[in-house]
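Format is chain and fold; as here:
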Amino acid sequence: MSQTAMKLEPVIRPEYVRTTLPPVKTGAVEAPLPFVQRMFAHAIVRRALVLVALAIVWEIYGRWLDNPLIFPSFTETLRALWDNIINGRIPQRLGVSMRILVIGTDLLSTLTAMFNPMPAIALLPLALLWFGLGVPSLIFVIVHSVLWAVALNAHAGFLAVSETQRMAGQTFGLRGLRFVVQILIPAAFPSILSGLKIGWAFAWRTLIAAELVFGVSAGQGGLGWFIFENRNLLETPGVFAGLMTVMIVGLFIEGVIFQTIERYTVRRWGMQR
């Protein structure tokens, strides 16, 4: 047979050789994850374990120190917290602090940008001079503490809204308030929410610190004043009970209120993981 009659086989280059994958088994049920691994997948469980560990360390150190005046144990602090909840002191003081906080955040829009460069410590003498001791001075300090974090984050969020979203809203005929409510605010909501979280933390810290200094009016004061009173009376467990209440409120606002808002807004919208 001549070479011209021979059938030439194509040359297969090695980079074009494809291996056949094994067939995928359908209907196979994967083994469930171990119980411990499933539990640790929840953030609330991890946070609870951290709090339990801190409480154990607190209790051990308090018992080892054996000086309730300097550092009471965790159980002594819990006892003081429970006693002051039962007698109504902490709920009453907490109500005063939360009422002042709400009033202060409602007045954010009334301030102008001229106060931005002024530190809070420089405004304390003016607050006392203008409003005296009591709630008005606390509101003034709270507003100054949270205004800039909330305003700057909201402003940055509005500026970050893409032109595509803006043009889409205009295409559907959205103008004025409807454009702001249906396009700008949802698109900027992650930044707005971050500003609210930062502003809340600033407001809560500033309120407690301000009450420690001048937070009493006509015999009434908030949690900061409760801590100050117990410190003067050398009731250190009461001081720690007040501090624990501050932390509990912070954990509740951060872990329940803001987490719920995030879950039903930015996470549902796919804007945050």
Observations:
- The chain is about 65% helix and 0% strand.
